[in-house]
Design goal:
heterodimer; A: alpha/beta; Pyruvate-ferredoxin Oxidoreductase, domain 3; Alpha-Beta Plaits; 7-stranded mixed sheet; 25% helix; B: alpha/beta; Rossmann fold; 6-stranded mixed sheet; 13 helices; 16 strands
């Protein structure tokens, strides 16, 4: 039992989650969740910070979570300590904006909305150089209002740019660029009842002894972008619901149905691991099979012309295809957040090749028209379809979360 | 030490000789090898460690002589050895494996998972003390270490029973209601390396008894695409453990059925769980498992010569623990002495594993006999006649309420 002390007249607790990309951002997430607790402690509150190892040892880029729970007193905190992880959170901090499309950390549960745990009136806090409106189009609608907060990069904001500082695009790793402090400042801006700006700045000062950093964090506090999101705003793209069967319903011997050859797991998409996606120039593809062969996730399928298209639901964005492709700019990695869905892009090329070429150009990809004739002369190695007809695997429906 | 091979209790005299049955002089290990031959075992994974290795030698000899046809794989260590059979079992191969002492422990990861995956591998544990230093004699702590993991566990006493149980083990383990691995324990030296006259039935009898190994829709095969052992978390493991629990709870009835059928075919192995000796009029009973029954019966006869009403009861299956039968049979005695050829340091009574289990079995019983624990025979040490006298005296004192402690080390030098 916690030590008995003078209990506050009103008790309360607040939960914060930090959604990060496995391995690369593990330290960053840890520092943010610890910072929430240590900051709140300066105001007499108590708390706990913890990781959950659903996907540990983490795979590169896999969405993973840290949590912080802060309470007015030990007894109230104990209620949270007894739980595996919070059922809902007041603030969800997302340290990579490409995760706004949804996250999938567990194979059997399918992709889940990034704002799933946020309570009514809570906040989704995203580190990004994009505008909140540009992120909202990728974020699942909620049936109630909440706040979307975007924490800009210090470089973008022009307040702090230490030498060798990480770029604010793609994966944000903890390269000492104040991202952890800035996130804490944003929490203080939204929810001073959890921790105040003064506590955050005190932590920065203690940790860095650098007044310039303190001032930078103070500046970010004033520069975070706040959007009040109304119920129903965002994307209504559907996410799979998962159903947890009882022991009499489960197959014995820890067995699940395997995927038939040529089919893909409807409950395990893998795409939420991706921060960048490969774009294929079907005009210059020489059908050499290298991408198809070397993709560790068997993402490529054969088009009627014998070129190879990416199945984006299965692609983790590892970029091996772009590296092994021998044709200049035929496979190029681009920012994932430019795409709302994960649909294959070959159909677009099929329907409107010019529109597809414009899409490539929009992402700064050179089209290399001089290579097209040569590519056309190459012959297909695989005949489409390479696989038997896809078998429909029923998705077990569960209740609305 | 006199090795007493005696008629099956309850059977009317010697069982009838089956047509085509032959009698061989075999060690317990060789008897198991004979059973593997007749059970059409598909794969034997081997790695030498005393005393289990007598089985792998016997199997290798039979394969070399063209008497047995199976895959025989010598692994580079016990961990791989037990992984091999786990995987072979998943693809539909009737599998056999075995080890002793710390070798068994080296395979622990695979051993634990084999039960979780519900793969009916049969293993022989040639019971051996846990090193160090280089102790080869029998203790039961090696096999007992897996007692909580979902393995079926039996201890046998004679070469004949080793043969019979190796066959019965496949019958029980592969039953669709059970599908759990089974460890058949043979006491190092006393059984693994001691030769007994063993009746080997003709193959037709075993064929009649043992259906082909059939995993059904759990067969890991390209025509039946399944994923075995996907990663699970707190949302799944409780249900998986509950399935194991249900399978283990179904096992006693399956064991009874398997013994009944085997008895009808061979006239042997009537009693599945507990075998009693000279207990009809007894006030006191000693209880043990494995070859402890041999000195146990010798002790009982000596004590009987002095007019003491004492008998012996041998526990044949440790998992599932036949708690109901234990209580039903033992509650009628004044005093019970549980002999542990093992130890469980720091356990509730600082006694042995069996003692703790027997005590727990009796907790809800309205009639609880005085129950003491004898720790002895460790590392293969003999039980002597004077040990027997001491055990009896302790049981008497216990039932008279004259003992301050209930755990007693026998044959230990002060």
């Amino acid at each position: 039992m916690p030590e008995s002390g003078t209990a506050p007249s009103t008790t309360a607790s607040w939960s914060v989650e930090v959604v990060y990309r496995g391995i690369f951002q593990k330290r960053l997430a840890n520092r943010i969740s610890r910072g929430v607790v240590l900051g709140a402690r300066k105001e007499g509150k108590v708390g706990t910070a913890f990781a959950r190892y659903g996907d540990s040892p983490e795979r590169n880029g896999i969405p993973a979570k840290n949590f912080a729970v802060v309470a007015t007193d030990e007894v109230t905190l104990e209620g949270s300590l007894a739980r595996y992880e919070p059922e809902s959170v007041d603030v969800s901090i997302v340290v990579d904006d490409t995760m706004c499309k949804g996250i999938e950390s567990w194979a059997w549960y399918g992709v889940q909305p990034i704002n799933k745990l946020i309570v009514p009136g809570g906040a989704l806090l995203v580190t990004s150089d994009k505008e909140p409106e540009d992120l909202l189009h990728a974020i699942k609608v909620k049936p109630y209002d909440y706040t979307l907060i975007v924490v800009p990069s210090p470089i973008h904001a022009g307040v702090f740019a230490p030498e060798g500082s990480a770029s604010f695009a793609g994966l944000w790793v903890d390269n000492d660029d104040n991202t952890d402090f800035n996130c804490l400042a944003a929490v203080a801006r939204f929810a001073p009842q959890i921790l105040s700006l003064d506590s955050v700045l005190a932590i920065v000062k203690e940790r860095t002894s650098d007044d310039a950093r303190v001032e930078s964090v103070r500046a970010i506090y004033g520069q975070v972008k706040i959007l009040q999101v109304k119920a129903g705003e965002g994307t209504s793209v559907s996410f799979e619901e998962y159903h947890k069967p009882g022991w009499t319903q489960m197959r014995e011997g820890i067995i699940v149905e395997a995927q038939q050859v040529g089919t893909r797991n409807p409950l395990y998409k893998k795409w939420s691991t991706r921060t960048r996606r490969p774009l294929v120039n079907f005009d210059t593809c020489i059908k050499c099979t290298q991408c198809w062969l070397q993709c560790p996730d068997e993402c490529f399928e054969v088009t009627p012309e014998g070129t190879y298209e990416v199945v984006y639901e299965a692609c983790i964005g590892c970029s091996i295809c772009a590296e092994v492709c021998p044709v200049p700019d035929c496979i190029v990695m681009v920012n994932e957040l430019a795409f709302v869905d994960n649909d294959n892009l070959y159909p677009l090329y099929q329907q409107d090749p010019e529109a597809y070429r414009q899409l490539l150009q929009k992402h700064g990809i050179a089209l290399h028209p001089e290579l097209i004739e040569k590519a056309k002369k190459t012959s297909a190695v695989h005949q489409q379809p390479t696989y038997p007809a896809k078998k429909e695997v029923p998705v077990v429906a569960g209740g609305e979360e | 030490m006199v090795i007493a091979v005696r008629p099956e209790p309850g059977a009317a005299g010697t069982p009838p000789k089956l047509e085509g049955e032959e009698e061989l002089l075999l060690t317990g290990s060789e008897a198991i090898a004979q059973a593997l031959r007749l059970a059409d075992v598909d794969i034997v994974a081997a790695y030498p460690i005393r005393p289990y290795d007598a089985v792998m030698q016997a199997v290798a000899a039979m394969i070399a002589d063209g008497k047995m046809d199976c895959e025989y794989i010598v692994a580079e260590g016990e961990h791989s050895q037990f992984e091999l059979v786990k995987h072979a079992s998943a693809v539909g191969a009737r599998s056999f494996v075995g080890s002793s002492g710390v070798g068994w422990f080296y395979a622990f990861e695979a051993i634990a998972v084999t039960a979780g995956l519900r793969l009916p591998v049969v293993a022989n544990v040639g019971n051996r003390a846990l090193d160090d230093p280089g102790a080869f004699g029998v203790e039961h702590n090696d096999a007992l270490a897996v007692r909580d993991l979902g393995w079926l566990m039996a201890w046998v006493e004679t070469g004949q029973e080793a043969f019979d149980l190796a066959v019965i083990a496949y019958k029980v383990a592969e039953d669709p209601r059970v599908m759990l691995p089974c460890a058949v324990s043979t006491d190092g030296a006393f059984l693994t390396h001691s030769q007994h006259l063993v009746k080997i039935p003709p193959k037709s009898v075993i064929d009649q008894y043992l259906p082909p190994y059939n995993l059904g829709d759990r067969l890991f095969h390209p025509d039946n695409p399944i994923t075995i052992a996907p990663q699970v978390d707190q949302d799944w493991l409780t249900e998986i453990r509950k399935q194991n629990d249900a399978a283990m709870r179904r096992a006693p009835e399956v064991i009874r059925e398997a013994y009944r059928e085997y008895y009808e075919l061979t006239g042997r192995q009537k009693e599945p769980f507990i075998e009693e000796y000279m207990t009809d009029d007894a006030d006191y009973v000693l209880v043990g498992q494995g070859t402890i029954a041999m000195p146990g019966r010798v002790i009982v006869r000596r004590l009987r010569e002095q007019g003491h009403k004492v008998g012996f009861a041998r526990l044949k299956w440790f998992r599932p623990f036949p708690a109901d039968e234990v209580v039903a049979r033992l509650s009628r005695f004044k005093g019970v002495g549980i002999i542990d050829r093992d130890y469980s340091f720091g356990s509730p009574h600082h006694g042995g594993v069996l003692f703790t289990e027997f005590r727990a079995a009796f907790y809800d019983s309205p009639k609880r006999p005085a129950m003491i624990n004898i720790i002895g025979g460790l590392g293969g040490r003999e039980f002597t006649a004077s040990d027997g006298q001491e055990m009896f005296d302790l049981m008497q004192k216990a039932s008279a309420g004259e003992l301050k402690t209930n755990v007693h080390w026998i044959g230990v030098r002060e």
